[in-house]
């Protein structure tokens, strides 16, 4: 079973306008879409879209939290939330007629130590060595690195596999507990290892191998329209996957989450890394072809899969 953990869930609202966004003026939306959000929850949605199953664990607060749970129920996505005081945050994405995206994300509410312990107990109920955990996204205000690290340690000490999609100090903290896979984008990778961002696959692979030395089992570096690079501690060779031709993005939100979903689903089925690489790039790029935060179905992923080329570097 795949378990997704979202420490800072959200309601995602996408607004479309038929003109460029004009600051300090009235902007009228021509359409809107509301969906459950937060990176871990997006991973659960993407897993469902490609025919897999998961359990989404997250915090839930106020009427927004109830709406979030209701939305997941309507999508037939299993969830097990911990109710806390406050109000689940709302993230707003504005897409104009040129395809430009403007995002406004609320910070979320602070989580008390008592609520965190209840959350940890909820996670412990799923500590079966056969389970794969996905820990991704931002953390609530004031959430400590110590508590983030404890969550990683509890999962790994139970013999479960762990995939982490985090940035900065959170990624560095996770690496201490030897996650089975991490998925930084090229900017997050450069920030953590101290290299300059680049789209050169060989240079990206060299930077990614530094994360292997720091504890990761597999590193997937997502590079948007430039595809992705994969390195593994079990192989001296790196893999580079991308579509030919490249796919223009219609909606950038959720593409990385779709990749993580495909990686988790592939690991659950014990698929080899080269196939996971092709399928996860196909999932991300298929999602990029869709508006808003819509997740690509298995059919749409396979349409892109036929365009994916895989290279050894």
Give the overall pLDDT as a whole number. Answer: 94
User: Could you name the CATH class?
Assistant: Alpha Beta
CATH superfamily: Ribokinase
Give the second-level CATH assignment, the architecture: 3-Layer(aba) Sandwich
Structural class: alpha/beta
What number of structural domains do the residues give?
1
Q: Let me know the number of strands.
A: 15
The share of residues in extended strands comes to: 25-35%
Oligomer: single chain
Straight-line N-to-C gap: 33 Å
Report the radius of gyration as a whole number of Å.
19 Å
Walk me through the structure.
The chain is an alpha/beta fold and 313 residues long. 37% of the residues lie in helices and 27% in strands. It has a single domain (2-312), classed as 3-Layer(aba) Sandwich (UDP-N-acetylmuramoyl-L-alanine:D-glutamate ligase), CATH 3.40.1190.20. The strands form 2 sheets. Strands 1, 4, 5, 6, 9, 10, 11, 12, 13, 14 and 15 form an 11-stranded mixed beta sheet that branches. Strands 3-2-7-8 form a 4-stranded mixed beta sheet. The longest helix is centred in the C-terminal third of the chain and has 16 residues, at 273-288.
